[in-house]
Amino acid sequence: MKAIEIADGVYRVAANIGSKDLFEGIWPIPDGVSINSYLVKGEKTALIDIVKDWDNALEQVNEQLADAGSSVESIDYLILNHMEPDHTGWLSELKAKNPDVKIYCSKKSVPLIKAFYKIEDNVFPVGSGDSLDLGGGKILTFEDAPNVHWPETMVTFETSTGVLFSCDAFGAFGQVTEHVFDDQLTEDEVVFHENETRRYYSNIVSTFSGFVLKAIDKLSGLDIKVVAPSHGVIYRKNPGKIIEHYRRLASYHNGPAEKEITFIWSSMYGNTEKLVEPIIKAVEEEGVKINVHRVPQEHVSFVLSDAWKSAGLIFGMPTYEYRMFPPMSYVLDIFDRSHVKFRKIFRFGSFGWSGGAQKQFQEMTEGLKWECIEPVEWQGSADEETVARAVEQAKMLAREIKSL
Ligand code: FEO
């Protein structure tokens, strides 16, 4: 595999990870994920972010380092923007092969390097405004970007080429194979990467949206010519596009999001399911886009990706032993962790010998500041009047979303 020169003396050395594992042990990656490192060659050489021993990643990166005329043993500086192990898992092995390498990282990374890898020597903490001159015109500057994604995160900027090494910021799921740059993507690939950017954002970063907005404002002073994230494609034709995409995604944490509804439903014996088609039809008749997910059949990763962009949410779920249907509790827990706030909501569902789902639903979502219209619940099988009532509520929600 060849290293790709993304700017004068700056190379992408990346690994494509396959689809069989879960990212962070939680999130499915049916189309894989890329982990990008970058080599900057001045008179001295710096490697920015690394990979972990995952699905042949080390072999891929070593091969590309060699292609760029470098090696783990010969780099002078290792820049660690972020300590999560997808970008640092290789550290102990790398350090064993190159004990003199100078590690540059944020101040908050120092104890994490010790905790994860027991490394304390040749570690140099830096912060906003600090720089490292590699010689040959290559100067790296550093900017703290706390909580994008962990508290210790920083970004690195190369001043002569205008390349921003943004680590998780502006990243995406999905492998990057033949087309590495934004200007090479086909229309289908553009859609693919936009969807995988939103899924990555909602799954990994959304909790920290306020910090993302602060970081974007902070970076506005830089003359960014290339955005080089640690996951996903590189933006050289229109770096502003991915920055604005992230700004828009981050803005959804305060609502309103896009004028569409995500409908999440579960059913045990078909009594809640009976209303699914009428509800979908009702929303569509109002001219509002509806994204439909059944849980637990669909993974919450995909549910969250649609919910994050939707101003309205509809939940259909039965009561299960005095509480919510358990897979829906998990969805709501993830929504709570991910800060899916300030949405407009309608909930419906059946119960058997006792209700209870609605009470738990209200308790679990209290902190999310949702605006809920009157729910519809019924015992046993829904009669025509109940179906009509739920349909009318769904239409009312759709009209509210349309009028935003
Ligand atoms: Fe790609 Fe937060 O690590």
Please tell me about this protein's structure:
- This protein is of the alpha/beta class and 404 residues long.
- It has 2 domains: 4-252, Ribonuclease Z/Hydroxyacylglutathione hydrolase-like (Metallo-beta-lactamase, Chain A), CATH 3.60.15.10; 255-402, Flavodoxin domain (Rossmann fold).
- 33% of the residues lie in helices and 26% in strands.
- It contains 12 helices and 22 strands.
- The chain has helices spanning 57-67, 85-88, 91-97, 109-117, 187-205, 209-219, 239-251, 276-285, 300-309, 326-338, 357-365, 384-402; strands at 4-7, 10-17, 22-23, 27-28, 33-41, 45-48, 77-80, 102-106, 123-126, 131-135, 138-144, 154-158, 163-167, 226-229, 258-265, 289-294, 310-316, 319-320, 323-324, 344-351, 371-372, 376-379.
- The strands form 5 sheets. It has a 7-stranded mixed beta sheet. Strands 15, 16, 17, 20, 21 and 22 form a 6-stranded parallel beta sheet that branches.
- Strand 5 and strand 6 form a beta hairpin.
- Helix 6 packs antiparallel against helix 7 (239-251) and helix 8 runs parallel beside helix 12.
- The protein starts with a strand and ends with a helix.
- The model has no long low-confidence stretch (mean pLDDT 97).
- The site of MU-OXO-diiron has 8 residues, from helix 2.
- Residues 261-398 form the Flavodoxin-like domain.
- This is FprA family A-type flavoprotein.
